[in-house]
Structures are given as structure tokens and as C-alpha cells.
Write a structure and sequence with these properties.
The complex is a heterodimer of chains A (424) and B (147). In chain A, helix 8 links the parallel strand 7 and strand 8. Chain A contains 17 helices and 14 strands. In chain A, the strands form 4 sheets. A 5-stranded parallel sheet of chain A has the order 12-11-10-13-14, with helices on both faces. Chain A has a 4-stranded parallel sheet with strand order 4-3-2-5. In chain A, strands 8-7-9 form a 3-stranded parallel sheet. In chain A, 41% of the residues lie in helices and 12% in strands. In chain A, helix 6 crosses helix 9, helix 8 packs parallel to helix 9 and helix 12 crosses helix 14. Chain A is an alpha/beta fold and 424 residues long. Chain A has 3 domains: 184 residues, Aconitase, domain 3; 102 residues, no CATH class; 112 residues, Aconitase, domain 3 (2-Layer Sandwich). The model of chain A has no long low-confidence stretch (mean pLDDT 97). In chain A, 58% of the residues are buried. Chain B has a single domain, classed as Glucose Oxidase, domain 1 (3-Layer(bba) Sandwich). In chain B, helix 1 runs parallel beside helix 2. In chain B, strand 10, helix 2 and strand 11 form a beta-alpha-beta unit. The chains are: A alpha/beta (424), B alpha/beta (147). At the A-B interface, helix 2, helix 7 and helix 16 of A face strand 9, helix 1 and helix 2 of B.
Chain lengths: 424, 147
């Protein structure tokens, strides 16, 4: 791989051991993918926080040891300096306020808070959400980023037209310290054109259907780049967020185009550029029903736990849940957790949504989610969620049955304790 | 006891992570999720609709198309190394950043860009020697014992 003089100097340790370790990882990684060079980035979003029991034995050696092992893949414990470029912490393991409800041991929340203080001193911004684009990190078109979080990456590439691969803990750790990432994959304009065409025969409109469509497309195209044609109802951020998260879960989709809607495709021709569609798939009522069935892993209708807010909810979604819960009480055998970024939770509190949701007996969580934390209320056997992504992952992670449906069906299940969801 | 053929089949490919390893092959034509798809403490596949669900890849020569799903892929395979339940080697056919970074931090020999289709030639249970330094895989097919 070709390195600039500055990059060579970093590799040689001229700027300290941490940058040398970071550059060493970027070179190993860049050569593994076959990149010819690195590219400068000033927008890094990764996972740095120490918040799980599995890292405690490393924390005992100090937070430099955590960063060195888990964020740089370095055998040597290096002293971590201030980040070289703008760097953000994505979702983390523990809700700093609701940790007791999560069943977190006090020593673990103390560890997370100490970890955050360490990272904060090094200017890693604690947005603590899977949706940095909802709370102030909105890259501009063409901006080179180094982001983790598959649902954020697909949004960044597709909706915003900024450029990132799906990075990992180690590569974002190295990028924050060097401002570099391999120039490969989605950083190159020629790799961003569509490959597969999806023709909509069903007028996809509500959030649930956008989630189902994403899940269907991910299974069909795997890690390729779908172009969705014949979209009759203009989707908003919430729907595209759900769609992308689903497509990135069932497949490995990192970028899609919707002509006239997403950043790099004003037309079908622009979406495909020099490519011809490899395959054309159709999404109609049959595909919609089949995919809805695939997302159900439950048979027992008695629901113990409802999870809303994957990816983290926007203020409009929190407002809708508050409206559905107004004056109601959730079933005594059922728990409902609503997940939203901490900054949005503050707005929800100011608006009174938080109070309405809490008066119904539900909890508004921030910073984390059950799949990331692997923490659910005790004794949960059956869950329900409005997220195709969560319906995909949580049953495997937590060994529970899962229902998937609309937010209205989920809130209804929380109130009655019974799953009666369905689709027309 | 499983018998193997004496003469290996040889496939050439590109080294992603250098090194040598040998062991029993575990083959899937389905991509694998890291976060949410494996148990990193036990080295097993947990994705509920995966054809290898419940099976262990620890110490195996893992042949699969590549990585899918969450960006926690590398971190979870990184943890399989720290927990000593990583695959012995990774052979894959579709390069992505998740796959490359995951192979790099798992620090086991890894190869891709093969001159023949490995899925045609390698089955679970075959004995496979991976020499990423030489860019070569040697396959000793399992032989079913008579009776």
C-alpha cells in the first residue's frame, strides 16, 4: 500500500506509539482488502465504551489497555492521546439513568462512567446512539467517513450520499487517532452505482412495510446495491432508517438508491450509472406476506416484553407512542421499553411525552438497546417489536420468541399482554 | 476414525492474513453474522435461520462466502481469539471491510480469490491444510469407510 510521508512517519512512531499501532492496523487491514492507499477522514463513529462484563478483565489493566486491545488490535498497551479528528461514540451497553431497570450491577455502571470520562477527555463525543444522524452528526454529500453501525452506514451512504464502509471497533479506533481509513469500497465513486433492481408492485407506505421491504431486499441482494423503483409514497427519515436497518440485517446491504429520493440518484439511469441490473426482483403482496411471516419467530401469544426504538426513535416516533399510551396502562405481566437518543429524550421530557409514557408504566431508555446490552427484563420468554432488525437479532441473542408488527400492534400488545397483530 | 485421501487437491488463492493452519473443514454457503450471529465465548453459530445453527467453528477451517450483518463482526471474531475459540483459518469468497478487518484481528491464516471454486471441492469433515504464505490450500477428502 502507498503511504504518504506523514503516514510513514506515523507508522514509524514519530508521533507516538498509539499512532504507530493505529497505522500498523490500518496497513494490515488495507492490505487485506487490497486498498492502494488511505484516505483522509474527519468523521469517525465507533464503539469505544467499556460497558460489558466481558471486558472487565481488560479494564483492570486500565482504559489504555482497553483501547489498545479492542480499538487498535495492539498487543502492546499504548498511551492513548486526544483524538486527531472528530470522533463519536455510537450505542453503548448501559443506560446511564435506567441501569437498575436493566438489571446492571453497580460496578458495571461505574465502569462505564469511568470509561466515558476517559474517552471524553480524549474528545470522543458521547452521542451514545446507533443514529448519530438524528443528534447532530449529519455528514454532507461526498464526505469521507469511518463509521460503524450497519444501520447508520447504509443511511450515511444512501440517504446522505456521504462515503463510508462498514468499519469495525478496531478500524474506527485507528481512524480517530490518525484521520485515515483505507481508500476502498464505498469511498470510490465507481463502487457506488446500483447492481440490482427492485420493482415495487405493492405501494409501500407505512413504517412496517418499509421494514418488511428492507428485510426482503437484504435476503435477495445480500451485500449488493439495490435500486428501488416505482416508489409511490415519498418516504421520510424514519421509514428510510427502518428500511436500511432491515436490509443491513437480513443481508449485508451498505448502500441503496431510490431514484428521485436518495442523494446520488435523480433517475434510474443515474442510480445504475455504467452498470446493467444483474437481476430484477419484484416486491408485491405475496413477497410482503412471506417476509412478514419470516419475521415471526413466536407461537405463544402471551407477550412479556415490547421493544420499540430500533434504530433509536426520533421525536415523532416517541410522540406517537405517547399518543397511543395516553390514559392507558400497560398489562401487569408486560414491560414496554422505548429507546431514543438521550438528546431526543430531553425534548420528549420537555414536551410531556416522557411523563405520558411513564404514567402508562413504560420506560424510555437511552444509550443502549436490549440486543446490544443483551439485557431484557427478567424471565422474558416472548417479545414483540416494530423493528425488523430487532426481530432478526433479539430472538437469537436472548433465546426468546419474537413477534414483529406495527408500532400500534406492539403498543396494543403491551396494554393487553397478548399479541393480536397482523397485516392486511 | 475418518480416513482421508492420500493425495491432496490443491487450490491457489490470495493471502489475506499470512500463516499456516490445518484442521477439519466446516463449510457453509451462507454468509455469517458476527454480532448477533455467533456466540463469541463458545465459538458457535447462533443465528436462528442459519444452516450451521448450533455448530462450533472453534479450531476448524471455516469456509464460507463472507461476512454479513452488524459492524460488530470484527469485534466478535476478535473476542473469539481472546477466548481461544476462533476458527483455525478462514477461507472466503466475497471480500468486504467486515470480512477483511475480522480476519485481520482474528489473526488466523485467511485466504480469498481462489483459482477454483472451493465450495465445489471442500466439504465439512475434509482435512484441509491452509498455507496462506504460499497462497495454497491442500484438501484431503474424507473417505467413507465401507460397512
Amino acid at each position: 500500500m502507498q503511504l504518504t510521508d506523514l503516514e510513514k512517519a506515523m507508522l514509524d512512531g514519530v508521533n507516538g506509539r498509539a499512532k504507530a499501532a493505529a497505522m500498523d492496523l490500518l496497513v494490515r487491514y488495507g492490505e487485506a482488502v487490497g486498498a492502494e492507499r488511505l484516505v483522509e477522514t474527519n468523521n469517525v463513529a465507533g464503539a469505544f465504551n467499556a460497558s460489558t462484563p466481558s471486558v472487565r478483565h481488560i479494564v483492570d489493566k486500565g482504559f489504555d489497555a482497553v483501547y489498545s486491545e479492542l480499538n487498535l488490535d495492539s498487543d502492546e498497551i499504548v498511551e492513548i492521546p486526544h483524538m486527531a479528528v472528530d470522533t463519536w461514540q455510537l450505542i453503548t451497553g448501559i443506560d446511564n439513568d435506567n441501569w437498575k431497570i436493566q438489571g446492571v450491577d453497580e460496578s458495571l455502571i461505574t465502569m462505564q462512567r469511568e470509561s466515558e470520562a476517559y474517552l471524553g477527555e480524549r474528545s470522543i463525543n458521547m452521542c451514545a446512539t446507533c443514529t448519530p444522524y438524528q443528534v447532530g452528526n449529519v455528514p454532507v454529500k461526498g464526505e469521507h467517513c469511518a463509521w460503524m453501525e450497519s444501520s447508520a452506514v447504509i443511511y450515511c451512504n444512501s440517504v446522505l450520499g456521504a462515503r463510508t464502509n462498514v468499519e469495525g471497533k478496531e478500524s474506527t479506533g485507528a481512524a480517530g487517532l490518525t484521520g485515515r481509513i483505507p481508500y476502498w469500497g464505498y469511498h470510490l465513486p465507481e463502487n457506488r452505482f446500483g447492481t440490482h433492481q427492485i420493482e415495487l408492485d405493492f405501494p409501500v407506505h407505512d413504517m412496517m412495510d418499509w421494514g418488511i421491504l428492507g428485510y426482503f431486499i437484504g435476503e435477495m441482494v445480500e451485500e449488493n446495491r439495490p435500486v428501488i423503483n416505482n416508489v409511490l409514497h415519498h418516504p421520510n427519515m424514519i421509514k428510510l432508517k427502518h428500511f436500511g436497518a432491515a436490509a443491513a440485517s437480513s443481508g449485508g446491504v451498505e448502500m441503496f438508491h431510490i431514484p428521485g429520493i436518495t442523494a446520488e440518484a435523480n433517475s434510474l439511469a443515474e442510480a445504475f450509472g455504467p452498470n446493467k441490473p444483474v437481476e430484477v426482483f419484484r416486491f408485491g403482496q405475496r413477497e410482503r406476506l412471506e417476509t412478514y411471516q419470516k419475521l415471526q419467530s413466536a407461537t405463544d401469544r402471551k407477550v412479556d416484553f415490547i421493544m420499540l426504538g430500533c434504530p433509536h426513535n426520533s421525536i415523532e416516533q416517541v410522540a406517537l407512542i405517547a399518543e397511543l399510551l395516553r390514559g392507558k396502562t400497560i398489562h401487569h405481566d408486560t414491560e414496554l421499553w422505548v429507546h431514543t437518543p438521550r438528546a431526543i429524550k430531553q425534548v420528549a421530557e420537555r414536551n410531556g411525552y416522557l411523563k405520558t409514557i411513564e404514567q402508562a408504566g413504560a420506560v424510555v431508555m437511552s444509550d443502549t438497546c436490549p440486543a446490544i446490552s443483551r439485557r431484557l427484563p427478567k424471565g422474558v420468554r416472548v417479545i414483540a417489536t416494530d423493528s425488523a432488525k430487532q426481530a432478526h437479532y433479539l430472538p437469537a441473542i436472548a433465546n426468546v420468541q419474537g413477534w414483529f408488527g406495527s408500532v400500534t400492534d406492539c403498543v396494543e400488545a403491551a396494554i393487553t399482554g397478548s399479541w393480536q397483530g397482523g397485516m392486511s | 476414525m475418518t480416513l482421508q485421501t492420500a493425495t491432496p487437491i490443491i487450490i491457489k488463492g490470495r493471502s489475506v492474513v499470512a500463516g499456516k493452519a490445518s484442521g477439519e473443514a466446516l463449510v457453509t454457503t451462507e454468509t455469517i453474522s458476527g454480532w448477533g450471529g455467533i456466540n463469541e465465548r463458545e465459538g458457535t453459530i447462533i443465528e436462528r435461520r442459519h444452516e450451521l445453527v448450533g455448530q462450533s467453528f472453534a479450531g476448524k477451517i471455516l469456509l464460507f462466502p463472507g461476512a454479513k450483518g452488524s459492524s460488530g463482526w470484527s469485534a466478535f471474531f476478535h473476542m473469539t481469539r481472546l477466548n481461544k475459540v476462533s476458527p483455525a483459518a478462514m477461507l472466503f469468497t466475497r471480500m468486504t471491510t467486515k470480512m477483511a478487518l475480522g480476519a485481520v484481528v482474528t489473526r488466523v491464516p485467511a485466504m480469498t480469490d481462489f483459482d477454483q471454486d472451493p465450495f465445489e471441492l471442500i466439504e465439512s469433515g475434509d482435512r484441509v491444510e491452509v498455507d496462506a504464505d504460499a497462497g495454497e490450500i491442500r484438501i484431503f477428502k474424507k473417505v467413507k469407510q465401507p460397512g
